[in-house]
Amino acid sequence: MPRRLTVREEVWPLAGTFAISRGSRTEARVLTVEIGDGGARGRGECTPYARYGETIDAVKAAIEGLGPAIAGGMDRAALQAALPAGAARNAVDCALWDLEAKRSGRPVWQLAGLDQPGPVTTVYTISLDTPEEMAASARAEAWRPLLKLKLTGAGDLERVRAIRAAAPDSQLVVDANEAWRVGELEELALTLARLGVEMIEQPLPAGEDDALFGQNWPVPLCADESCHTAESLPALAGKYAMVNIKLDKTGGLTEALKLRAAALKAGFGVMVGCMLGSSLAMAPAFLVAQGARLVDLDAPLWLREDRDPGLSIHGSVIEPPPAALWG
């Protein structure tokens, strides 16, 4: 029986408001892809992101356009050439991995030649707000080992000081989402180091990060918006110590694994992150997160309700995904 591709939009309400420097959200709008052949079904999920010029409608149309090719037997290698890196390719790539796992009876980690995955500890994100509100959120989550703080520029030092006081034992990382300029980074970096901040994610706009080159920063810098695929890495050398791998940027698990291997070979530390989405989007990223220096797959913790079955998360510890979810 020919394979059949379907795609649908899903809306997952958040338990609260998630805010970063570019705006706030109260729901995760995702696209869920299914590829079935009558005997098995593979699934993938993506979150189109306006920062990268993506919309729900355009990404959905790009996925639907692959219907004939999928029916004709398109494999993951052909998919890499058919679509650019991004959300559309991610959902289809992950669905193809899942379909192969379901048909073969072998988990994706075996198919990919990886070691059997074990639990990982994720950061928990403190959404952008006033110093007082962020401190209150951090105080409620102070039992977690890792907190990630969303920052925006003005008032950021007050935010970090308030959160450090509220959560004195948690490890802290911060994410400016391109909101700073190099002068702000130079002013903040040493004080953030003294406050125990262990990593700064994407401080400058991606197009302005040449200003980072060759400087010895007191806190390691991590590229997010500046890093999409393995082809991004040469331009990041000498600017960043780490790269954030997200499947919606790489265009799926296939390229994410390639990027991880290339980043480690080049001497970058690896962080694995996510967009807002359900456990279905986190499950393939979980494989990339094995052995990563930093894991940021807390999106299901922000949902009012997750998929069933979803990932099993105990506090901040994520267990390997069940086969019924993905892989």
Q: Layout of helices and strands, plus pairs?
A:
Layout: E1 4-20, E2 23-36, E3 41-46, H1 56-64, H2 67-71, H3 76-82, H4 87-104, H5 108-111, E4 120-121, E5 124-126, H6 131-140, E6 146-150, H7 156-166, E7 171-175, H8 182-194, E8 197-201, E9 221-223, H9 233-236, E10 242-245, H10 247-250, H11 253-265, E11 269-272, H12 279-288, E12 294-295, H13 299-302, E13 313-314, E14 317-318
Parallel strand pairs: 5-6, 6-7, 7-8, 8-9, 9-10, 10-11, 11-12
Antiparallel strand pairs: 1-2, 2-3, 4-14, 13-14
Helix pairs in contact: 1-4, 6-7
Describe what you observe in this structure.
This protein is an alpha/beta fold and 327 residues long. The protein has 13 helices and 14 strands. The strands form three sheets. It has an eight-stranded parallel β-sheet with strand order 5-6-7-8-9-10-11-12. Strands 1-2-3 form a three-stranded antiparallel β-sheet. A three-stranded antiparallel β-sheet has the order 4-14-13, with no helix packed on it. Helix 8 (182-194) links the parallel strand 7 (171-175) and strand 8. Helix 1 (56-64) crosses helix 4. The two termini are 22 Å apart. The mean pLDDT is 96.
